[in-house]
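=== Discrete structure encoding ===
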Amino acid sequence: MSEKPLVVVVGPPAAGKTRVAKRLGRILGVSVVDTDTEVVTRHGTIPEIFASQGEEFFREQERAAVEKALTTSGVVALGGGAVVNPRTHTDLLGHRVALISITPEAVAPRLANDKRPLLRGGLEAWTALVASRQEIYQAVATREFDASHRSIDELADEVAAWVREDAGL
């Protein structure tokens, strides 16, 4: 029988998903799998993958990383676009999913010198991308947490309290 993550963290690019997931892992004393990190470890940086192999190749590798990650225990952080894949969307049903949201004003400083291929247009590109995915983020989320005006530690503490309560830990 496969394992099931305690929580899956989703949300838009630059919302702080990876940092929250790492902090959650420490708080809850469990392992953390970040699907973007898994892809980068095997294939190079995301900008390099987009430039040499294209977005379709990246999405295929991302999907494989998601499938594997969802069979582990602990905390799983998905890349911002992973939820767009209909199979991933379906796979998240029945999982505890924390959506990390953030306002455009709060994310703007995080986009300076950003190396994300889909965000080369800065805040305008981020806003359009998030708008196109917002319905999907909402549909897969069990609960939403706003990262706009809180530290990563405060946010992770709130998510951890929810996970403990919801999981009966």
The domain at 7-163 is CATH 3.40.50.300 (Rossmann fold). The longest helix spans residues 122-140.
